[in-house]
Design a protein that fits this description.
Number of domains: 2
Distance between the termini: 80 Å
Strand content: 15-25%
Low-confidence stretches: none
Order of helices and strands: HHHEHEEHE
Helix content: 40-55%
Largest sheet: 4 strands, antiparallel
Structural class: alpha+beta
Number of strands: 4
Radius of gyration: 26 Å
Number of helices: 5
Shape: elongated
């Protein structure tokens, strides 16, 4: 039988679980993007909530088995809420690649709107093609694609996550000093 106190406890567990799983989703997003401080804070709060919720469910599940249902519902709903918040925040950049036969028109239109582009000329199966590359904030990707589609409805668009570039040391530089100790000479 569902009592008022069990219902209130279940709703609290449900809401706390939504918050905890939502924070976990956001924490994972910030880890992937390399944001240590935000990830640390979100992880700290997430685990505090999780420990409290799990202890409440474990302590009360024998007397009130329905608490496990509230726990599971909160987990499932927390995933949806976390993903929704992540999409709404739209943190980070995307790499947009455009394959089009209207390269000059699209490039000038996008550059007039402030987008930075690199344009390459290529050869497709049916003739010359322009390849346009740009790194765009996630919040502006839809606008860019809509603008491109106004000019070329057949434009092929590829969108990927854009990671920070890496500066690699030249591989042709000879190793010296302690770095060559114990290595065979070539």
């Amino acid at each position: 039988m569902l009592t008022e106190s069990m219902l209130i406890n279940g709703i609290i567990i449900f809401i706390a679980r939504i918050i905890d799983v939502g924070l976990g989703t956001l924490r994972t997003m910030f880890i992937v993007r390399g944001s240590r401080t935000v990830s640390w804070f979100l992880g700290f709060v997430e685990v505090l909530i999780w420990i409290w919720v799990v202890s409440e469910v474990i302590d009360g599940v024998k007397q009130e088995p329905l608490l496990s249902v509230f726990y599971a519902l909160g987990f499932a709903t927390g995933n949806v809420v976390g993903l929704t918040i992540e999409k709404w925040l739209a943190v980070g950049d995307k790499s947009v690649m455009l394959f089009t036969r209207a390269g000059e028109k699209i490039a000038s239109s996008l550059r007039a709107d402030g987008y930075v582009l690199t344009e390459l000329k290529g050869e497709g199966q049916d003739g010359p093609v322009s390849l346009l590359f740009s790194e765009v904030p996630r919040k502006k990707v839809n606008h860019l694609v809509q603008q491109v589609r106004k000019i070329d409805t057949d434009c092929f668009v590829v969108i990927e996550s854009a990671d920070a570039g890496y500066s690699l040391r030249p591989t042709s530089a000879p190793r010296t000093g302690w770095r060559v100790m114990g290595r065979k000479a070539k």
